[in-house]
Amino acid sequence: MALRLSLRKLPFGKASSLISAATTSHASSLTRALSAVASADFPDYVLRAPTTDVTTLDSGLRVASETVQGSETATVGVWIDAGSRYETATTNGVAHFLEHLAFKGTQKRTQQQLEVEIENMGGHLNAYTSREQTVYFAKVFKNDVGKAVEILSDILLNSKLDPAAIEREREVILREMSEVNKEQEELVLDHLHATAFQGTGLGRTILGPEENIRSLKQNDLVNYIQQHYTAPRMVIAGAGAINHTELCELADRHFGQLPKTPSSGVDFAMEPAVFTGSDYCVKFNSQDTAYIALAYESASWTSEYAFPLMLMQVLLGSYNRTEGLGKNHASRMCQEIAENELAYSVSTFNTCYKDTGLFGVYMVCPDFKVDDLMWHVTNNLVRLVHNPSDEEVERAKLNLKAIMLMGLDGHSNVAEDIGRQLLTYGRRMTPAEIFSRIDAVTKDDIRATAAKVINDKDHALAAVGGIHELPDYQWIRRHSYWLRY
């Protein structure tokens, strides 16, 4: 039943990266945002969005929920501030391994009993691991919320971690790794992280290397739980048919025994992310398609550049040859790519972490179009430093608002948004606040952000496939700025 997803697998530009951006700390940006709140004339559905109730229990565990009146279903889950970034080189893969084993039986339930109980409720139990977070959640009818919280506590706190199950899961995870490596986008983005953040926790993959998967022991799993599964690093979030008071009581009853501090008594220090300008290229002469990811070091969730970067992502846009827009695409970069038939698909991404981020473009193109494509992409990236138009910026603002609202359709998306935001900066922004912060961004903010992130900056690049036309590192580096006389 365990399903591996990661935040970076969510569609680029969707609410997963948009809503988790934190409040700006820059004084001038904050002033503009507050003035926008006071003067904004937002639609009624934005101003009347449901509130998010947040309670912190004595243990430090946070409980947050958004109640939707009249709903018959609910999503409830546990968001944990721990992922592959918090592992060491020798334990890389343990967080994902734990996700698999959580569904293999507890002290109270066998694997079969767990599956039958969920099926009899008509519910859905799932989990995923990312680089900075681990999530377990359940979708159930409103009368089964209490049972869902109890099951979540059971699989998190009382998992058997049976040695026989550990041995069986090794092969399951290795097969999963084989399937993931067939997905070129997954593979290239893993290589991109590995080269951009080489030698640090953020550069390691979520699944871990094969040697770790084959060698991890029960003791490694237990140590990880005792170190990272503490109350202050967890959020229980719910959305839909949720009564907040009842959810707090359920959380206190079933998660009350969570420790406040690690068993060692010392909190694990997050390894800083150090960006290294570099590239990682794997050429296959037998392939006629190139898969390329070009990225620059960007900003964290709590940076004053967070919202300008979101708008830059939307402004550059995404292109797919199978879609109908073609040469009529609003994005100038995508329009040029379509007119010259340079790529099968292009997507701009903006990935944020606690202390850094990656902003760039992922491309899939014919091997004989790589050189031309790289010129157009780098040229459009640098153009943001000099002359983005007012029309482009306003259109990007409207699109960003639409993406944000559409990303909140469904209880699962709302619960995901609540859990992630509380982990990233301790509160949840309302749609009205997000709208006001989007409106506060000006064309000059876009130019300043692009100048900081792109202009004359080192980049990271990962490429796989037919890349014999790919320019070298110095060519791309020289094209990160314009010579203006």
Quick recap:
This protein is α+β, with helices and mostly antiparallel strands and 485 residues long.
What is the distance, rounded to the nearest whole angstrom, between the alpha carbons of the first and last residues? 61 Å
C-alpha Rg (nearest Å):
23 Å
Number of strands: 12
Shape annotation: globular
What would you note in describing this structure?
- It is a single chain.
- With 485 residues, the chain is of the alpha+beta class.
- Helix content is 43%, strand content 17%.
- The chain contains 19 helices and twelve strands.
- A six-stranded mixed sheet has the order 1-2-6-3-5-4, with helices on both faces. The protein has a six-stranded mixed sheet with strand order 7-12-8-11-10-9.
- A hairpin with a 5-residue loop joins strand 1 (53-56) and strand 2 (62-67).
- Helix 6 runs parallel beside helix 11, helix 12 (306-316) packs across helix 18 and helix 14 packs across helix 18 (443-453).
- The protein is globular, with a radius of gyration of 23 Å.
- Mean pLDDT is 89; it is low at 1-39.
